[in-house]
Design brief:
By secondary structure, the protein is mainly β. Among the domains are: 112-216, Neuraminidase, CATH 2.120.10; 217-299 and 331-347, no CATH class. It has 1 helix and 25 strands. The longest helix has 4 residues, at 317-320.
């Protein structure tokens, strides 16, 4: 599991720092220049509370403290106005539930079950305005390779589910995202079958699904996508080019525009990477876990949050006494500017416990 932390510094006590509603001190360069990630085993004990951080600007993370659930919290969305957190929550018995945290009662409450009983690891989802849209997935109890076409949405104001029209195709384990007020569902891996390059798009205004037959590029072996500032980006990589390249979806033509190659020339091929939107950057996260089992930082939406190691501490206590500790790997972060600007790359260290 990956945690956000401050970058260790021997001179930190002499820095001129100002705390501005954030878990990190804000300096001249902003907190994005002074952070690292900590990788731990999944069953790491964080005590009674868990700190979460959500980027609200290039120089600030907004902090939130929620009660610990005994297991991992996978944030789906955070309401900027109410502070409510929608998440998949795992308890100490390793059971998952779709739950919501409210600052009003400072606790987690499980939401009503979906109309269609889906496995919580298999559906596609995205938040648009006050609704969580879900589609596809496997049944909660084994039915072979059966997949759902059914879709529904949750009104986050009333916590009530309602059906929406079925998708054109049944699916499971696909990527869901929101863009331009639409709910998209695309494959999470590529196959030679032509349907594996197709997407479906739901329009809440017309209550209709649209099938898009050639949404993804044809020449990709592995890929991941993310929405940043209402624009869709795709990272593709292969055994021939393990470092990969970054592309942007052209809404006017339905094609893809090449942006830049990832400057990771020593990279080895891996089956799974995540493209995570953080502020004005896209982080490429490679935790070297199994693709199906990993939940290091499952990002559902741009308003998602990062887990923070040991609350507002400067540096994990477990690493304080280790001399000469060095990062095991790095996150490659690409800053996306205005149209026509060259993207700016930097690396964020990952330290392992």
């Amino acid at each position: 599991m990956l945690w956000l932390a401050r970058l260790p510094s021997n001179s930190r006590r002499g820095q001129q720092l100002e705390l501005v509603n954030t878990i990190f001190p804000v300096g001249q360069n902003g907190v994005f220049e002074s952070i690292c990630l900590i990788q731990t085993r999944d069953a790491f004990d964080t005590g009674r509370v868990q700190w979460l951080s959500r980027p609200v600007s290039d120089k600030q993370f907004l902090s939130l403290v929620v009660p610990q659930t005994g297991g991992q919290i996978s944030v789906i969305s955070i309401s900027p106005s109410s502070g409510q957190v929608l998440a998949l929550v795992r308890n100490s018995e390793n059971q998952k539930s779709l739950s919501i945290y409210s600052p009003d009662f400072n606790g987690w409450k499980p939401l009503p079950p979906m109309i269609v009983s889906r496995d919580l690891n298999s559906f596609s989802g995205a938040v648009i305005d006050d609704f969580l849209y879900v589609a596809g997935g496997f049944p909660t109890k084994g039915s072979g390779t059966m997949k759902f076409r059914e879709a529904e949405r949750l009104d986050l104001r009333t916590n009530q589910w309602e059906r929406i029209p079925e998708m054109k195709q049944s699916n499971a384990l696909r990527k869901g995202f929101a863009m331009d007020g639409y709910f998209f569902v695309i494959p999470s891996f590529i196959s030679s079958h032509p349907l594996f390059c197709a997407a479906e798009r739901f329009d809440p205004a017309t209550n209709l699904w649209t099938f898009i037959p050639e949404f993804l590029p044809q020449d990709i072996e592995r890929f991941t996508v993310a929405v940043l500032k209402n624009e869709l980006y795709l990272l593709k990589w292969s055994r021939v080019e393990p470092c990969g390249g970054l592309l942007k979806y052209d809404k006017s033509t339905g094609g893809w525009i090449f942006i830049d190659r990832v400057p990771d020339f020593d990279s080895k091929f891996c089956s799974k990477k995540q493209l995570c939107p953080v502020g004005t950057e896209l982080w490429i996260v490679d935790c070297h876990h199994s693709e199906l089992l990993c939940e290091c930082n499952k990002v559902f939406s741009e308003n998602s949050a990062w887990h923070v190691f040991e609350g507002p501490s400067f540096w994990p206590a477990q690493l304080e006494n280790i001399n000469g500790v060095e990062p095991r790997k790095f996150v490659h972060a690409c800053k996306i500017g205005v149209e026509g600007e060259t993207p700016i790359w930097r690396t964020i260290p990952i330290f392992c416990l």
